[in-house]
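Subject: for your reference before the review

Hello V.,

The reviewers asked for a structural picture of the protein, and I figured it would be easier to keep everything in one thread rather than splitting it across files. Below is the amino acid sequence we used in the manuscript, unchanged from the supplementary table.
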Amino acid sequence: MKRKIGVLVSGRGSNLQAMIDACAVGELNAKITVVISDKPDAPALRRVEGTSTAAVVVERKSYQTAEEFDSAVASVLEEHGVEIVVLAGFMRVLGPGFIHRFRDRVINIHPSLLPSFPGLNAQRQALLHGVKITGCSVHLVNETLDGGPILAQTAVPVLPDDTEESLSARILKEEHKLLVKVLQEMCACAP
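And here is what came back from the structure prediction:
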């Protein structure tokens, strides 16, 4: 049976596209049932137009508190029977109430070898620190920003002439592969 995945996005959605492509060719035994964005103009939402995947906008400004926003997002995921939640470029921190509702079922893709360079601008942080290797991590989400248990990582060399853009592009290619690989393993462990 296919696992039901919900994807939270804020931007372009290239990791979402990697998941869509993997599902389409049977590489990933899952169905993306809903994509939720906190931004109504997120290009990621266009990636599911004309498909059976629901595209839902839940804007933070529509709620008085972060907890109300988190609860609204969680309710949409539950309405769509989501078993695994993927944060794929979702630029909001989810609170403890959300994390507890989906305990050990929320994963995030991050563009660094955690625990190095958590938070925003990880590629810029890597360049500023002069590291020779960085990469990407998929981790379970807990109450600590980018601090949950690491599920998998891929190393990417930092080249002498790298810019933030060139390094980001190389890491992103690896993110696509790593995220699908972790989801394959999670779906294979279905109860």
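For the response letter, the relevant points are probably these. Residues 164-188 form the longest helix (25 residues). The chain has one domain: 3-188.

Happy to draft the paragraph if you're swamped.

O.
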